[in-house]
Design brief:
Number of strands: 8
Order of helices and strands: HEEEEHEEEHHE
Strand order of the largest sheet: 4-1-6-5-8
Oligomer: single chain
Length: about 160
């Protein structure tokens, strides 16, 4: 039993992402510099021994340069096609000028984008990421955290 559990844990994907909006309600997004080079919420995997919220803050800082605070957990999403989960956190920018350089090996751009523009760019955004954004904008704070499947937006 322990060997099976260790194998599942080793094969399991675990992602953390941040949903951050500015005063104009635009969403902080990053464009990957690898793979399909699509837009995504800032985020990624945790490092060994890292607290989840600290991992979200680190990923945002590495990918955007912003120092952020975490407001709360929006949702926990199960993957359907592989063993894994995604945690989506709400956050806010604490320092308005980026203090770090972008990790240009991973990220080519970082900027705030309006929901209308994001919806019009749907072929340039990972469908599951657009699904997270749509969910985050419709769930009220009192309904957090949501627990559901990670469902891609219709493309």
């Amino acid at each position: 039993m322990r060997a099976k559990l260790n194998r599942i844990q080793k094969d399991m994907s675990f992602g953390v992402f941040a949903f951050i909006r500015d005063a104009q309600k635009r969403v902080l997004m990053v464009r990957h510099n690898y793979g399909q080079r699509k837009w995504s919420l800032p985020g990624g995997g945790l490092e060994q021994g890292e607290l989840v919220t600290r991992g979200v803050q680190r990923e945002v800082a590495e990918e955007t340069g912003y120092v952020v605070g975490i407001n709360g957990l929006i949702g926990i999403y199960s993957l359907r096609k592989s063993p894994g989960i995604v945690l989506l956190y709400s956050g806010k920018v604490l320092i308005s000028d980026p203090v770090n350089q972008l990790n240009t090996q991973e990220i080519s751009q970082s900027r705030f984008i309006s929901l209308e523009e994001l919806r019009s760019m749907k072929h340039q955004i990972y469908p599951a990421q657009l699904g997270l954004i749509e969910r985050a904008t419709t769930i009220r704070k009192g309904e957090w955290p949501e627990s559901n499947w990670l469902i891609p937006a219709e493309v």
